[in-house]
From TrEMBL:
Superkingdom of the organism of origin: Bacteria
Protein name: Arylsulfatase
Main EC class the enzyme belongs to: hydrolase
EC number: 3.1.6.1
Keywords: Calcium, Hydrolase, Metal-binding
CDD domains cross-referenced by the UniProt entry: PAS_like
Keyword Nuclease listed: no
UniProt domain Sulfatase N-terminal: residue ranges: 79-490
PANTHER family named in the record: ARYLSULFATASE FAMILY MEMBER, BLL2667 PROTEIN
Amino acid sequence: MRTKYVGLVVLIFSSVLGWRSAAERLSGAVTESTTTGPPAVSSVQLPQPDPAFKGVIGETYKDSTPSYPLPVKALKGSPNVLVILLDDVGFGMCSTFGGPVPTPNMDALANNGLKYTRFHTTALCSPTRAALLAGRNHHSCGTGVIIEMGTGYPGYTGVIPKSTALVSEILRDNGYATGMFGKWHNTPEPDISPAGPFDRWPTGVGFDYFYGFNQGETHQYYPTIYRNATWTPQPKTPEQGYHFTADMTDEAIAWTRNVRAADPDKPWFNYFSTSGVHAPHHAPKEWREKYVGKFDHGWDRQRELTLAKQLEMGIVPKGTKLTPRPKEIPAWDEQKPEAKQVYARLMENYAAYMAYTDYEVGRLIDSLRASGELDNTLVMYVVGDNGASAEGGLEGTFSEIASLIGVQLGLESTLKRLGEIGGPTSEPHVPVGWAWAMNAPFQWTKQVASHFGGTRNPMVVHWPKGIQSKGEIRGQFHHVIDVAPTILEACKIPEPKVVNGIPQKPIEGVSMLYSFDNAKAKDRRTTQYFELATNRAIYHDGWVACSKYGLPWETAGRGDGFLTAPWELYNVDKDFSQADNLAAKEPLKLKELQAKFLDEAKKYGVFPLDPRFSERMDPKLRIAGDPKTSWTYYGNSVWLPEPIGPQLFPRPHSITAELVIPKGGAEGVITCAGAFSAGWSLYVKDGKPNFRYTFFDIADVSIPSSETLPEGKVTLKTEFTPDGTKEGGGTLEFFVNGKPAGGGKLRRSVFRHGLEPFEVGRDSITPVSPGYKTPFAFTGMIDKVTFELTKK
């Protein structure tokens, strides 16, 4: 009986812990395990297998020796890793690299570390971020464009494949704590919903903790924030001093301190991805005041001043030329006084935002210095995910969302609200001229992957325990795909071959560690392609061949002229700024590099080339089958990113709400989408339905119903009938229990309304209508709301 009992117990244990063969266990033989456990650090297969039992099994615990399965630990002395990524910062913006905006905290890191002046990005947000974390080219990561523009081709899905595991996952599975703060922009847009799937949110790709926003931009005073995978309201109001950059910094500091409090030895990886300085450009008033009058000399003169400073500092080689202003960008001296006033104010605000971002980065660095962790923290500080952005248009804008969807509000719109720029009621963006100036001495801007104005972003590396050199410049040619392999080499972690059972594409980047203490080390990156919306280039052995097509501030209707767009040729070993086009003088070299580009494009999934930009935001490109024409939601609590919700304007549609109105009436928001600056809201106030549509100055209308909602069960319906104009205007009518109840006209509507969500039952962040204060939750019962596209 006793033998059977022991056998049964051991069988149960064996099924749980996976011990040795059944015959050995049932025999009662008790021996010490000879199977070795997992290595102390990293394996080429992740996650690492469960540790083998190393103890002794007797008949009772008294004659047995336990061996508790401990988690994988990083190698003793492994560095922390802090990757700081700024957004939309040009090569010539920050003082660290000769620019006009003081960045003393970046300066301090550079003076005690290294400045890389030939580092490159992809020229756009999501592609750079995917490439940075994966260590592969952006097309290899399925991210040839931003996630909102994914199409059905392998290089352009907007979906990072499982075969390109991110460095966050590799570090986590090798004993690191991992946290991500700020802008993500790498989750497929359809997945940004309460239904997920969540496997491509930060917490699904190796980050233990996430505090930030998931799409390309957010309002700094009224952000759309997620904690892990759940929307969370901001902790205080702008009137109480709230700004998202400070909030994410507070969260990052608290996270690193809590990790260290919980485990004094566990290294961490912090991906600190700031909003700064992506539009909307928001800077606290006290910071804006520091820059009043600082840019009255204009963008042409600023480029001259920046190059002079870069030459003085040794940021650029002697003899570097200032590339000329393209004919498409107007001269500063040709602008009218009121235009100069607007443009200077927009630039003052942009500069203030950068300076403020530097201050907040400095707070994070100071916290590490105070805790004694900075010396053994590898800081890789990438100064921009692309060049400065020209997406604000030639005149700049009070609403960057309007500009992105092709609506120019005009100079007058900004002029009459000059005092609001940078504050909570604005969503501003600088004009093209200032974006171009911030990329000095290079040509062009963000989106233009053919030229260094779009792709050359400097980088600072700081690691006192790992780098002997201090305050030096490094001129090796590198790319953002080189960040991940650098981290792995510094942490002594091998590249995994299999992750979660999926074979991995080889990492395509090269480690930069070889250059840390050797300024004269020969470049290990000798070839690199660039491509973004048919702007393309190839770097090879000191030469660049490139072809530019379209203007970055023209977001639609670019056509197929890229097929015949001219190519340029530069010897960038001798011509740092791409100032001397040698295409006519060196036709054979140009032909050689064009062939090289084709080879690289085929290798990394660049084809098919596609010049479309905003057209690719069409959700039909990311669904199977016919697009939805109706949506139904139940209850008083629905919250979705607007692109996941019903796609209504400017198309003909109806909204039908089945409500229960209590005795005494009800009030509140039935359904809405968007924000105070751009959005729509169907709500009840003083017993009557109202519809509000706003899009800054060009579409701003409140339509009240003529009828009061009765008590009990009520069906409230609106119908929108477009007028056929290109502005998307039309007539909106109310119906209460099937009977006409008034209406009115919309003179304009657009297909997206910015950064805030679609909701049923409330308006959570900023009020679409000035007629109520958020959340203005509906006090009746919403049985269901149905949205239908109609054929009118």
